[in-house]
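Today's session is about reading a structure prediction critically. Students often jump straight to the picture, but the first step is always the sequence itself: look for stretches that repeat, for charged clusters, for runs of hydrophobic residues. Only then move on to the predicted structure, which in these notes is written as discrete structure tokens rather than atom positions. Here is the chain we will use throughout the hour.
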Amino acid sequence: MLSLFRLLGCVGLLSIASSVSYAQSFSLEAVKSYPFPADLTAAAKGSRIAWTINEQGKRNIYVAEGPSYTPRKVTPYTKDDGQELTSVTLSADGQWVVYVRGGEHGANWDEHLGVNVDGLPFAPKVEIWAVPFKGGEPKRLSDGDYPVLSPNGKTVAFLKGGQPWSVPVNGSEPAKMLFSTRGTTHSLEWSPDGSQLVFVSNRGDHSLIGIYTNAQTPLRWLAPSFTHDRSPRWSPNGNNLVFVRTPGTGGVPDSVLVRKHRPWSIWRVNVASGKATQLWQAPRTLAGSVPATNGGFNLHWAAQNRIVFLSYQDGWPHLYSMPSTGGTPLLLTPGAFTTEHIRLSPDRQWLTFSVNVGSDPQDLDRRHVARVPVDKAEMQVLTPGNGLEWTPVVTGDGTSLALISATAQRPPLPAVMPFGKGTPTLLGESLIPANFPQRSLVTPKQVIYKTPDGFTVHAQLFEPTGGPAQKPAIIYVHGGPMRQMLLGWNYSDYYANAYATNQYLASLGFAVLSVNYRLGIGYGFEFHQPAGANTSGAAEYIDIKAAGDWLAKQSFVDKSRIGIYGGSYGGYLTAMALAKDSKLFAAGVDIHGVHDWTTDRTMSVTAPDRYERAPDADLVGKIAWESSPTAYINTWTSPVLIIHGDDDRNVRFNQSTDLVRRLEAKGVDLETLIIVNDTHHWMKHANALKVGNATAAYFRKKLLEKAKAGAGE
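Below is the predicted structure for this chain, in token form.
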């Protein structure tokens, strides 16, 4: 096993060699110097907005106010220390900005634990902070997470240790626990007048919706049943709530491998009487199942006593509206496209969201901002064109729309525009560093191909200019798998990082194909939830193999030098490619991938804590094993670099430890890189650079040097 030191030692000489043929070459540090905005929010009144910006690991909150919307930084953080900022909220009057610092909120577990990328003697905590909008020293309010500001802006309710707490927003008093109850509490939401808090108490096999009033009044449970009740939303007058109900855990074990409808329904409950009424039952079809897209149910109580929600029932994740008394839902957003990042306007009259539709057929691989009234199917795409826009939010005065905008070259920036029609005005262009190689970035080309089993797959080709007629090629495989890579910068921090890496690899002379394989979003239900995929047969790997075959047929590709890389689920599919098709894939970089689906994933089926088992329990384990890269170690011959952070909270580190042991035993050409104390999402910018540079150096050595050897150099 070679060390990373030797691997990176090749970078300097190979950079010089590459720059002779590729005038567009630039450093990874330069292309990853972009500022990344997120968490865009607006005050319920007035024109104040706030957002986070990650500048090379230095995370801060910026604010702006109409009509000028001049960006201004209100937090003082100056280090690349891995402490993320989340839950950014403005008080209704815009006087305070509340946020959480620390943790790993993209994690599958332990999101509430501090992240210690610098190896400090004591790990940083996850903490709630507040800073005045006008500026001043941020105030630490408490340890805790998921803050919710009261309507009058004076009190912050939050979660700590699975129980609700509160603290004055100005930090004038210590935080105190509001109440303690069985289970784990979540989904806090203030009543419109601020006199009560609704919450969800997860009890394991069921969950309950409760109301807290004050320390003297017992908790009230609304329509308790043997079900999971969730997503409670207040009516504007505070007299009623609407919520989602799904079945409780239990029942006769059913077949695991057969796709089944996952039922859900929408209910209304009167707060005073506790009487509950079912308003709507989802269609009992596969597409009518619980939606697994951004925001889940996206349930809101809108104006005109309308209930709005998201459903996949017509094969696409669309918005629906119905009277608060029930009835047939109105489809608000008909068409073959996806709705994401859904917000209800402050006056509750409009829904704003991101869509992959527009006047250009290639918009299926972009995002634009749209709006629709809550009671009419009159959707408008507000930002047409070949750019990308997402996460729209209406300002409290209802006159402006804040959003995030990007292109294939320009990185994401906040923007504002009139709410209705107009051109977005960018905020913070001066934050793009002078050395950022914007003019040197290629515009990805849309690629569409068919798989042997009949699926249509979209991909983006980063094609370098200049160089030899036949170039080495690399397939990039995104994670998730419920993700979509775009024809430009991505709205996810993790995938913006991948987009920058793909641009860097193209600048070095690699043709890079980023593949949107089945299981991903953006192409409808049957693509998102296909049969025989994941642990039930890994059908999505067919799309990756077909991408390699497509590249091998292109005249500009040297088919003997096709590499593959990806992270998380992309690491899993990278390992599958190397294990099953080493003749096609000459080398790979497997970044924190899953390698054995039977570890910690099939025990509840094959060996449950009960007498009964699923009728196909034995077959479940067999197919999960056959869907794992470790099942094909005997045919794995291609070299691989395996990278993993050992505080990963999405894919267990032992997945890579186990694979390394197996590959060592077989004698596969193997190199490794451990990122100590970092997580799945590279919370420290320096670590993201380390991973990106190691990936590029590995492909240079395995694919570019292979060409030199073949030429007798």
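Discussion point for the tutorial: DSSP finds eleven helices and 40 strands in the chain.
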